[in-house]
Design brief:
Largest sheet: 7 strands, mixed
Order of helices and strands: EEEEEHEHEEHHEEEEHHHHHH
Pfam family, one: Pkinase
Number of strands: 12
Helix content: 25-40%
Structural class: alpha+beta
GO molecular function: kinase activity
Keywords: Kinase, Transferase
Number of domains: 2
Oligomer: single chain
Domain Protein kinase: 16-266
Shape: elongated
Protein name: Kinase
Radius of gyration: 20 Å
Amino acid sequence: MTTVSVTNKKIAIDRYTNITHLEKGSFVTCFTALNENMQKVVLTVSDNQREIQSRMSMSAKLAKVRGVQRYERYEQLDISDCVLEELNELYPAVFSKTSGVLVGEFYETSFNSHVKALNVGEKISLFQQLLAIVSEIHANGVFHMDLKPSNIMIHHGAPVIIDFGQSVSELEVESVLNTSAYAPRHDVYACSVISEKFDVYCLGNILHDMLVQVPLTTSLVQDSRQYKQLQENVGNLAANLIYGMTTREQQQRYPISLASNTHCSLIISFRNLSAKTV
């Protein structure tokens, strides 16, 4: 059991110091901290055992995949009643008597802030790295199911996909409820069987956001005004790729292998635009 204490409105969790609130999600709250070696780590706190178990199992399943979130260990928290009262004053509805903490690597830069500094060619190169990571995740029988910029971090210039709390195995068959702005709404409300095409749509929407600074609110329709505007801004090949990845019909939507195979052509198509910052 890992002891939690509060002194002068600052949390201490055993060997972890300088604990600072990072963000709160649906089921978890994240803090940054320094470990005993003075290295930055992320402490992911939750009392949702299903969420914790999902993250732990997917981390183990994808242990050999580069570019995914790593967890070092899980520790059950030992919180006394008086400390819990102090914690709830500092962070309402975050800690409970059944809370535990996942200890993971720290990633220094958010995806959106990193993308803002890139030119078009660099954005396409970064997106190709994302495609390669997701392709390998799928090859290991896992679908992320919540791909969006806030679930991508940058570590030493390379993307790292985090938050596998909603991920599923290819052996699982269930409906999806994901209200993210990057998710295919029609897949959600049709309760479609899980497939790689859900993640592909999210990736296509992320690419659209990278290039024009806004996610799609609905599937891209060929020959529409929106599609033609996208062609003018980023070229035919990129517009066609986004269309193929975000089309409404799952059967017609690109598999991730086809999206990945456009890499060389896409890079070439952006050479003339590589000096332009979108």
